[in-house]
């Protein structure tokens, strides 16, 4: 039983999970009344036609008269071939609309994720190394602050300070500037800062507490007796075992924030990212687009959890692949 | 006489705790010659481990604080900077510890950890470091060393782990090996194998060994000289035969009495170690000593007195004008004939 087989099994399982989620989504959608059928009926009634006949035609047109399993097969096929339908509210294919949203979301999500992954564990381990000093207390205070304050609220306050009073960033995100420009970096710095404070708290705390355990481990005494410098001891002997439990928190935190808070932050800062696309689709009752973004978020979560599982086994050699 | 490999003078290690300072090692002296095995003996909590970990200052500072003089090949280790000391650790002086189960990092292969010990001190390419590590793994008795190199610690048994730890300690060819109860966590058969291995390696690598144990059976097997510690002080020291045949200090006598193999009573020593925050005046052992008298309970620990060549004891009963034969009557290893000689009262 090797690593390869474990990876294959895990990937297959992720596929099954996504299929289950897609099926549940399909059942929910097919159970709900279709707004476009109702619209056609209303239209016909207004123009003096037969609303029942118009509804029937609209249903036929969209293939809703087909038996459930045929529609299910069609749905599944289109989901996995990325034929996610037409967005009524944006008059473009759903995948295109999501792609445009992702383009803006990535602009702040990539720096935010990178900063959290880099700074969180480093500050956490540093905190543990200087436990109960003022540095540790300062880091802990910052972690709790970021953890406790809601992102959208913190965002509004910072927007008020830097956007309204100091006028260093535009109040509404300016989409006209180039992606890699100073202007763009400046206007994204505040949302990135808000998201980093939100995500880094848990990462810092977990890495601090885990590494506090490992820095007092017997193997640290062995390392010291071998002549390993404190810096190397922390970088190799503390950081590595800390990453094992941390990887769970890290992926969980990042996903939760990505799926939840990014929407709020995009609304607050007026960034036309994937969160805003979803939000607008909801307001406009654009079923296809809403369905598309739900599936997109679901797939991201499934892939995130898959990566977490794989990283976990790579980091900790004691985890056996055998009976799973 | 040549300078000893390791010379410890007036070593004192204090820990600051919430209840005030705790002196774990209170001004001890000892020396280890080249190629010699010195055993530090004493019950748990007597400061043996702290003493050995103070030598290269791997004891945590703070809360620990090490004072005194430790000369290794004539150089004072305690006045060295951290950086200079790191050159000595693992290179000149290597350690193996009590619990091999915990002594290795579970995230790295044993080979990586052995190679690390070498490459920190010497600029050796990976390939050569690997060859050296495999060579040593083979030497300490790990079968299929070249494939085992890439295994993780959890894939080894306790005894094998201690062998790996020994290989790790020897990789930089140290002059002194400090072994802190290396066999205590192992079962008896494995214990004997490890002791035999250490004995062989000592000749091969020509190194001095400072061995810490509370197990007098182990001491008898490997020691050249013995230092008996109690509550942070040295009670007695001497050659292994002298100590086993004529233990001078009441504590040493009682300690030997606890060894069933040499006719001990297995009853243990009544009482417990004194509170390290507030050690008693006079001899540290006086509160538990059946020969203690008023003089024993005042002043500091008695000076060390010669009782036979190379054997010194810290006990007032050996001062001039005293009759120490009183202490001998319950001692193990004494022929029964000499028992009735003295019945002098104090």
UniProtKB/TrEMBL annotation, chain B:
PROSITE patterns: ABC_TRANSPORTER_1, ABC_TRANSPORTER_2. SUPFAM superfamilies: P-loop containing nucleoside triphosphate hydrolases. One of its GO terms (cellular component) is plasma membrane. Its EC number is 7.2.2.11. GO terms for molecular function: ABC-type nickel transporter activity; ATP binding; ATP hydrolysis activity. GO terms for biological process: peptide transport. It is an enzyme of class 7 (translocase). Residues 6-256 form the ABC transporter domain. Gene3D superfamilies: P-loop containing nucleotide triphosphate hydrolases. It is found in: Cell membrane. Coiled coil: none annotated. It is a peripheral membrane protein. It catalyses: Ni(2+)(out) + ATP + H2O = Ni(2+)(in) + ADP + phosphate + H(+). The complex is composed of two ATP-binding proteins (NikD and NikE), two transmembrane proteins (NikB and NikC) and a solute-binding protein (NikA). This is Nickel import system ATP-binding protein NikD. It comes from Halorubrum kocurii JCM 14978. The lineage of its organism: Archaea, Methanobacteriati, Methanobacteriota, Stenosarchaea group, Halobacteria.
């Amino acid at each position: 039983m090797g690593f390869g087989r474990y990876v294959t099994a895990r990937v297959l399982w992720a596929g099954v999970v996504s299929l289950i989620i897609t099926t549940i989504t399909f059942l929910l959608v097919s159970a709900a009344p279709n707004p476009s059928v109702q619209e056609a009926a209303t239209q016909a009634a207004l123009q003096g036609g037969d609303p029942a006949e118009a509804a029937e035609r609209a249903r036929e047109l969209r293939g809703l008269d087909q038996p459930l399993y045929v529609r299910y097969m069609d749905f599944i096929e289109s989901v996995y071939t990325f034929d996610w339908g037409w967005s009524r509210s944006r008059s473009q294919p759903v995948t295109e609309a999501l792609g445009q949203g992702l383009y803006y979301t990535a602009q702040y999500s990539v720096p935010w994720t990178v900063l959290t992954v880099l700074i969180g564990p480093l500050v956490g381990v540093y905190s543990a190394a200087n436990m109960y000093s003022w540095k540790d207390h300062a880091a802990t205070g910052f972690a709790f602050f970021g953890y406790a304050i809601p992102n959208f609220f913190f965002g509004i306050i910072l927007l008020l300070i830097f956007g309204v009073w100091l006028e260093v960033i535009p109040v509404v995100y300016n989409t006209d500037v180039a992606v890699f420009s100073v202007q763009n970096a400046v206007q994204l710095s505040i949302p990135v800062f808000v998201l980093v404070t939100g995500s880094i708290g848990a990462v810092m705390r977990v890495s601090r507490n885990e590494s506090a355990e490992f820095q007092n481990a017997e193997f640290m005494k062995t390392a010291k007796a071998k002549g390993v410098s404190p810096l190397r001891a922390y970088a190799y002997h503390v950081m590595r075992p800390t990453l094992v439990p941390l990887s769970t928190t890290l992926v969980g935190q990042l996903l939760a924030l990505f799926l939840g808070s990014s929407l709020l932050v995009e609304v607050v800062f007026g960034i036309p990212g994937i969160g805003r696309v979803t939000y607008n689709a909801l307001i406009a009752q654009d079923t296809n687009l809403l369905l598309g973004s739900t599936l997109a978020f679901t797939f991201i979560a499934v892939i995130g959890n898959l990566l977490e599982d794989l990283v976990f086994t790579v980091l900790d050699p004691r985890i056996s692949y055998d009976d799973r | 006489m040549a300078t000893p490999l390791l010379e410890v003078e007036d070593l004192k290690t204090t820990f600051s705790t919430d209840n005030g300072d705790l002196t774990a090692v209170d001004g001890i002296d000892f020396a280890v010659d080249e190629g010699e095995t010195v055993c530090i003996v004493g019950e748990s909590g007597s400061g043996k481990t702290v003493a050995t970990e103070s030598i290269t200052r791997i004891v945590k500072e703070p809360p620990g604080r090490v004072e005194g003089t430790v000369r290794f090949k004539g150089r004072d280790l305690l006045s060295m900077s951290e950086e200079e000391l790191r050159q000595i650790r693992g290179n000149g002086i290597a350690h193996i510890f009590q619990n091999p189960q915990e002594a290795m990092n579970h995230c790295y292969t044993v080979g990586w950890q052995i190679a690390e010990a070498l490459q920190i001190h010497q600029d050796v390419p990976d390939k050569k470091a690997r060859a050296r590590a495999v060579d040593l793994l083979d030497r300490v008795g790990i079968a299929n060393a070249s494939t085992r190199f890439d295994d993780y610690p959890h894939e080894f048994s306790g005894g094998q782990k201690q062998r790996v730890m020994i290989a790790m300690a020897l990789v930089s060819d140290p002059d002194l090996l400090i072994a802190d109860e290396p066999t205590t966590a192992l079962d008896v058969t494995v214990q004997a194998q490890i002791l035999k291995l250490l004995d062989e390696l000592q000749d091969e690598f020509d190194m001095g060994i400072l061995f810490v144990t509370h197990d007098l059976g182990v001491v008898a097997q490997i020691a050249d000289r013995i230092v008996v510690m109690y509550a942070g002080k040295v009670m007695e020291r001497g050659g292994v035969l002298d100590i086993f045949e004529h233990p001078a200090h009441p504590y040493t006598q009682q300690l030997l009495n606890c060894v069933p193999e040499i006719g001990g009573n297995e009853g243990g020593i009544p009482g417990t170690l004194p509170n390290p925050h507030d050690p008693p005046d006079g001899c540290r052992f006086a509160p538990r000593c059946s020969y203690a008298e008023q003089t024993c309970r005042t002043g500091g620990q008695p000076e060390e007195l010669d009782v036979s060549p190379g054997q010194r004891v810290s006990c007032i009963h050996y001062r001039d004008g005293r009759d120490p034969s009183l202490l001998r009557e319950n001692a193990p290893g004494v022929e029964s004939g000499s028992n009735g000689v003295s019945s002098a009262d104090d």
